[in-house]
Structure formats: C-alpha cells, structure tokens
UniProtKB/TrEMBL annotation:
It comes from Flavobacterium urocaniciphilum. It is a multi-pass membrane protein. One of its GO terms (cellular component) is plasma membrane. InterPro entries: Na-dicarboxylate_symporter, Na:dicarbo_symporter_sf. This is Na+/H+-dicarboxylate symporter.
Length: 415
C-alpha cells in the first residue's frame, strides 16, 4: 500500500512538473533561467540525499553478503553468471542501437542545424580518450575514503569484495562481531531509505519542471525523427529484456514489475538510475531474492549492466556521423561497438557518462566530437528513458541470477 501511495504521488508530481514547466516556458520567458535553476534544486536535494547513503549501503551489504556465503566457489560462480549476463546484455543493446540508427537513418537529411557548439565544449574537454591506464585507475581504488567520498560504486565494490573474502577466511566466532555490526548498519541505512523516498515526488517535480521550462515542447517536433527512432529502440530493448525475464522467471516477472514500478518511475523522472539503488535493494529483497545475491549482483550491475545507456551510445555516435555525412562501413561500426563496450565500463557513476563516452568515441573514429551539441537539447528526455531501462535491466539480472543460484543450491542439497 505504501508503495502505491508513493507511486501515485510521483505520477501527480510528474504531471504538475510538466504543466508548471510549460507555463513558465510559454508565459514567463524572462523567468526561464531563474525558475529552471531554482526548481532544479528540489531534484538536487533528493539525489544528494540518496547519494549520501549509497556508499555505506554497498559496502555493508556486499561485505555481509560475501561473508555469509562463506564458500568462495559460490562467490566465483555468482560473479561468473553476473558477468556473462552483463556482457551479453551490453552486446545486444549496442547492436540494437547500431541496427536501428542504420535502418531509420535519423541523421540523414535532418533539419537540425549546428550553429553553436559552445554547449558541447565542456563535454569535449572533460572526455579523455580511452586508455588502459585510465580504465585501471577508475576500477581500482587508491583509497577507500576517496571512493566513498566520490561515490565510485565500482571501486567500493572491489574493496568490499576483498574485505568480504578476507572476513570469510576467519572463523565464524572471530568474524561474527564485524558481520553483526555491518548487518545492523545495512538495516539502519535501509530504514533511512524508507524516509528519503518520500522526498522523491519533490525531486521528480523539480527535475521535470526545470527541463520543460528550459526546452519547451517545440524540441519534440524538431527532433521528432531522432526521438521516434530512439523510442522504438527502447521499446524493442524492453521487449527483449521482458521476454528473457519471462523465460527465466515465468509469471513471477509481473510480481517483480509491480515491486519495482516506483524505482522505474523515479529513475525516469530524475534521469538517475543511481537515485533508486537503495530502493532497489529493498524491493528486490521483498520480491524474494536472497540478500547475499542482491548485495553482490546489483552493485556490479550498476557498473557493468547499463542496457539503456549502451543502446544510446551506438545510436548517438552513428547519428552524429550521419548528420556530418560520414558513411561508416559495417566493419567500422562493429569496431566502434567493441570500443564502446570497453570505454563504457570505466565511467560508471560519472554524471552524463553516456555523452562523455560518445564524445571520446567520435574523436577516435574521425567524427567531429563537437557534434554532441546536436543532441544536447534533447538528451535530458532520452536520459529519462535510458535510466529507466538501466533499472529494469539490473532488476531482471539480479532476479534471474538469484533463481539460478537457488536451483544450484537445491541441486547441491539433493546430492
């Protein structure tokens, strides 16, 4: 019931946000900049409240999960299944983006003009080309406290896995006080989640009203071809994910969707899949997933399993090439796909990560990186769809791995 109340409040906030943003954009044009900046603070407050608890939640749940598994074979098995899912899902998403952008060719004969590239200058400067050194630096933490301070989920995951494995090596009597302390910490943080989530409707209102006030509704007509092709891509990706989910979970898929409807809507409205991470932990456990599987698979998914973002990367990169009249051969596009597969893994948790990866990839393939300015006006709305898709992909992967693992345990018990 609580979940439904929150869901209804978010829907109402979404409608109010769209109406408020529209009124400001068309009736009070002098106030657009001030209004957008100030009302966006509501979204910022909500997202910062959530970010505040992500690091302690990932650390405490993951360490407890691994220490309770005890068996290192199980850690390896779950990790192997998770990575196999993530790599397969990423390749399918990237390939889908590539196929659709070639089929619809939204960049060919477009009416979109590139008069001002200044909006893209910051992104172009921030993006570093892919290098093994940068990737390693991003994955392996220099300091746990730095990783905590900057909310580097992947780095926290690496430290937590090592800490959990080391803790599991101790006897149960020696490890018990630390496990108990971290287990209690995790439950306290999840209690905080239940309070913070009630600020989500305000966050939704702020984020949506700010975006609509700034861009208005005309942006949808100008980018109709681009948005149409992208929306079809997202729908096809959802169909694939849900079909795979149904094959694995059967009718329980609908129970899962019912459980995660609020996180999906929050991610859609705030363009942040990270903002719903704590809520996802709570809902997946309520769905019946084992806490040790959720605490291990979900943080990994947030670093390696961003299906919506993946599809968008090939879609946006080839769209920019089309606008500039650059014809890329299929082998070139497949090479780009593999480069995106690698580069995207090193930017989890970076704001506007998808755009930074697109800029870096365009530069590598001789596509003018300032072309990113073409898609900036509509990116917020595309980000809504890709954030929601990332959340769906991570919920399905966690539920699927939990089911496979439960079957493995049953088989082992029967032997």
């Amino acid at each position: 019931m609580k979940n439904n109340k929150l869901f209804i409040l978010i829907i109402v906030s979404l409608v109010i946000g769209v109406a408020l943003g529209g009124i400001v954009h068309y009736q009070f044009q002098d106030s657009i900049e001030t209004f957008s900046k100030n009302i966006k603070l509501l979204g910022t407050i909500f997202i910062r409240l959530v970010q505040m608890i992500i690091a302690p939640l990932v650390f405490s749940t993951l360490v407890v999960g691994i220490a309770k598994m005890g068996d290192m074979k199980m850690v390896g098995r779950v990790g192997g299944k998770a990575m196999a899912w993530f790599i397969s899902a990423s390749l399918i998403s990237l390939l889908l983006g590539m196929v659709l952008v070639n089929f619809f060719a939204p960049g060919k004969g477009t009416s979109i003009r590139l008069d001002d590239t200044s909006a893209a200058s910051e992104l172009v400067e921030n993006s570093k080309g892919f290098s093994l050194e940068e990737f390693v630096k991003h994955v392996i933490p220099k300091s746990l406290f730095e990783a905590f301070a900057t909310n580097e989920i992947l780095q926290i995951v690496i430290f937590s896995i090592l800490f959990g494995v080391a803790l599991a090596a101790f006897s149960k009597k020696e490890a018990k006080p630390i496990i108990k302390l971290l287990d209690t910490t995790a439950h306290v943080v999840l209690k905080m989640v239940s309070y913070i989530m009630w600020t989500a409707p305000l966050g939704v209102l702020g984020a949506v009203a700010s975006a609509i006030a700034k861009h208005g509704f005309e942006v949808f007509t100008l980018y109709a071809k681009y948005l149409g092709a992208f929306v079809i891509g997202i729908l096809v990706l959802w169909l694939i994910l849900l079909a795979v989910g149904y094959l694995i979970l059967g009718k329980r898929l609908f129970t899962l969707l019912e459980r995660i409807k609020s996180p999906l809507l929050i991610a859609f409205s705030t363009t942040s899949s990270e903002a719903v991470f704590p809520k996802m932990v709570e809902e997946l456990e309520r769905f019946g997933c084992q806490p040790k599987i959720v605490s291990f698979t979900l943080p990994l998914g947030y670093s390696f399993n961003l299906d919506g973002s993946m599809m968008y990367m090939t879609f946006a990169s080839i769209f920019i090439a089309q606008v500039y009249g650059i014809d890329m051969s299929i082998p070139e596009q497949l090479t780009m796909l593999l480069v995106l597969m690698l580069t995207s893994k090193g930017v989890a948790g970076v704001p506007r990560a998808s755009l930074i990866v697109v800029v870096a990839t365009c530069a590598m393939f001789g596509i003018p990186p300032e072309g990113i300015a073409l898609i900036l006006p509509i990116d917020h709305f595309c980000d809504m769809a890709r954030s929601m898709t990332n959340v769906l992909g991570n919920a399905l992967s966690t539920a699927a791995i939990d089911k496979w693992e439960s079957k493995s345990e049953e088989n082992e018990g029967a032997i």
